[in-house]
C-alpha cells in the first residue's frame, strides 16, 4: 500500500472515484423538508421567474438568507433541469471542493502525507459527508470559508514571495465575499475574529500588514456589494429584516426558538467527527507547540476552531450545521497528527469504528420500537436493511484498519477508516429515504400531479409543506398560516388568506365557477372543513395531511 500512495496515477484514481461516488449519491433520496424542500423550491422559482435579485419562497418574499445557494441551484436547474440531484449539486461540489482544497493545502504546507490524510479525514467525517449531499446552506458557507482559510494559510507562509502572497490573499478575500453571499455577516466576522485572536496569542503582529487590505477589501466589496444594493433598491424593507432580525436578533435573542446549552456543539462533535474523534484531542494538543518561523500555522488553525465554536456556543440560536466551518481546520490538524500518531492511538481509532458498527448491528433490529404509529412502524422496519449495511460497513472497515495498522501500514489504515466512515454515512442517509419520502409528501403529490396546470389554485390550510411545492412545480396559497412566511406576507398580504372563513368563501366561489382547485389540509383542521359542507373530494391522506380537490364526490 505504501507503493500505492507513492503513485500519482493511483492517487488521481482515488480522487476520481471519490468525486464520482460523491456525485452519484446526490440522487438516491427524496428532498426532505423543511430545509431541502425550501431551498430547492426557492431555486425553482428563481429559475422559472428569471428574477435573480429578489429571493422568494412559495412566491413570497423571503430574505432570511443571502442568494448564493439559490443562485447556484437555479444555475444547476438551468443547465440540467429541475430535480433532486440538481438541487443538491452545489452542496456536492462544495463538499468535494473542500476536501480537495484541504488536501492541497495540507500537502503544500506540511508535506509528507499530511495533505492526503487530511483530505481523507474531512471526506469521511460523518457530518461533512452527510452535509455534502443534503440541500441546505451550511456546507456552502463552510466550503467558501475553507477557501478563505486555506488561501490565508498558504499566503502567510514565510517562503511565499510578495506576488504569490498577493494572489493568495485576493483568493482569501474572494472566499470571504462568497461566504457573505452564502450565509451573511459571519463570512467576515468569523475570519476577522480568528485573526484578532491569532495576532493576540501568537505574537505575529505583522500579519495585519500582510493581508493586502486595500486591494482585498476592494475585491470583497466588488463581489458582495452589488446584490445588497440591488435587493435593497427593489425591496426597501430587506436591509432591516436581514441585518437586524436575521443577525442581531438571531444571535442575541431567543426569537428563533433554536436555543441550546453552551456545550451543545462540543457534545455534537463526538458523533459528527466519527471515526476520527480519537485522534482529535492529541492533534489539538500537538498544534499548541510553537513552530519555527514568523507565521504560526497551527496556532491560526487553533484560533479558527476555538473562536468559531465559541462564537456559536454563546449565540442564542444553535443548529448542528453552524459548526461545519471548523471541520477543514480539524482535518488539517488531524492529517498532521496521523503521520506521527502512536500505534496505540491508531488501533483505538480502528477499534472505535468497529465497535460503532457492532453496536449498530445489534440495535438495528429494534428500531421499530421507536415507532408511535403503525405507519411509522412500517417505515422504521423498511429502514433496517440499509442501516444494517451501514453498520456492517463500519465494522468491516474498522477490522480492516486494525489489521493494517498491526502490519505497519498506516496509509492503508487511514484509507480503510475513511472508507468506513464514508460508507457508514452514505448507507445511513440512504436508510432514511422511506421516512424522508413520507415526510416530503411525494405520494400525495402523485395523486394530482398529472392534473395540475398553471391555472389551478392550490391552498395549504394550517400548514406549509416545504417539499410538496417543489414536487408539484406549483406554489400554494397559505391559509391561516404564517410561521417563516410571516415577514413576506406582511409585505404582500394578497399572497395568503388570513382566516378559514375567508378561505371557505373563496373555495365556494371558485367551485361554483368550475375553477380547478386543490387544498393540502392539516389533518387537525380537516374536520372543520367537512362541517362546512364544502364541495370537495378526498384524493389522498396521511396521518398528518389530507389532500382534497374542489369537486364534490
TrEMBL record:
Q: Which domain of life is it from?
A: Bacteria
Pfam families annotated for this entry? Arnt_C, PMT_2
Subcellular location(s): the record lists: Cell membrane
Q: How does it sit in the membrane?
A: Multi-pass membrane protein
Q: Which residues form the Aminoarabinose transferase C-terminal domain?
A: 444-548
> Can you name this protein?
Glycosyltransferase family 39 protein
Q: What is its main location?
A: membrane
Pinpoint the Glycosyltransferase RgtA/B/C/D-like domain residues: 65-227
Organism equals Duganella aceris
PANTHER family for this protein: MANNOSYLTRANSFERASE YKCB-RELATED (PTHR33908), UNDECAPRENYL PHOSPHATE-ALPHA-4-AMINO-4-DEOXY-L-ARABINOSE ARABINOSYL TRANSFERASE (PTHR33908:SF3)
TM stretches of this protein: 12-32, 89-110, 116-132, 139-156, 168-199, 211-232, 262-286, 298-315, 321-338, 345-366, 386-404, 411-432
Keyword set, alphabetical order: Cell membrane, Glycosyltransferase, Membrane, Transferase, Transmembrane, Transmembrane helix
